[in-house]
Fold each of these.
Amino acid sequence: LFVLFFTTHEELQTLDVDDAFFNTPEDIAARALKPQGGVNFIRTFKKQEEDQAVNLPPNLDELVKNATYVQSPDNLVWQYFYNLKGSAEYPFPGGVFQWARYRINGTGLNETEKIFSESLNKHENTLTLATLRISSNGLGQPHFHFNANEMGYVISGCGQVGVILSGVTSNFNIGIGDVIFFPVGTQHYIKSVCDEDLLLILAYSTGNQLETLRMKDYFHGTADHILAQLFFKEQAEFQKFPRAAK
């Protein structure tokens, strides 16, 4: 079972091997592939009524006798593969992240992860993936991303989501199998409301280092006297908000 993300908001265009083959004139396919028997052998292929990209043939064991392959060299494999489950965990109050992402200068990545990281950064319109686990009643605090749309899929648990825009706030519940989407620059938060952890797979539409601003950071980064004017509260009142140790 796979969860797949594609970097397009248009209708997805896909060309399968069998479709390409059957849409190629017989003589052209024969000249390109050069099989024994030539064009007569090409004519022995019959297009199936069902899409074989989805439906495997019922007599698969009779058709395939050897499905082994040789593992490619590590420097090639790790351009396209990342062991997310075995990667470092990045905890935050209430949960933990694991990332398959680009990091500037490979900061915090091992050698194989650096290969994957650089591969992401070399390609346009790529994706950064992560798993987000929020403990029961935990909170992924309000934040937004400067350089990426975000899409998520709920693996387990249940939660509440808030999307905060100028003049509009949307709140809704999420559960297993639901998909959520946050456009770039949209402030949002996610809260777990079940007894079990809320687990999501997240995709970000960037191959660069993800740029995120959280509420506690921009609130604490604003001068007390400015906050006092905005909220009509004594300046000293804003000392009540705890600041993270540097």
Amino acid sequence: METVPPAVDLVLGASACCLACVFTNPLEVVKTRLQLQGELQARGTYPRLYRGFVASVVAVARADGLCGLQKGLAAGLLYQGLMNGVRFYCYSLACQAGLSQQPGGTVVAGAVAGALGAFVGSPAYLVKTQLQAQTVAAMAVGHQHHHQSLLGALETIWRQQGLAGLWRGVGGAVPRVMVGSAAQLATFASAKAWVQERQWLPEDSWLVALAGGMISSIAVVAVMTPFDVVSTRLYNQPVDGAGR
């Protein structure tokens, strides 16, 4: 089977994930607000402004307009390009080195590649989270950072907190992407093979890869969500003048 060069994996992986980001970003806005709601408060002691997926989509649209569902899109695209470009490139290098042929090698390669991607893309995810949390006072959950744009947010964080401030919260992001990447890269091939064995779709159809990816995503979400909640809260929390 012809192998794909790591550089091509980088471009294709980053491009595909950026395209997907355009469609999934509204879900990220809703997810961010659901995860920040009730932060460090006991159940029943805070108002639930966002209730479930559909009601939360409606709430965001009412508060911020339909465009509000695409808040943080530029930061999301930057993150997907950086994180997944690095992730697919490193994973491709590991496969070329034969790591994937070793027992557990696919999981290890996926986890390491994910960790590197998460570290590189962390500043973009930091800004994305803070932009997506911003809304009118009546619907606000979590700290409001009042950024105006991606570049403005990066500049503000740089000026106020220095270079280290741009990587604040990376301690939650690295394990988040490690487990997600390991689960995705370890289950996608087997999920795709399972779909092919069932012969529900033409063997050479792109729908086989789509079905395999959707099945694999169930495993990704199951292992990744607890880390995702922690990561979102670390990224959005306020800090004092000393960065504490």
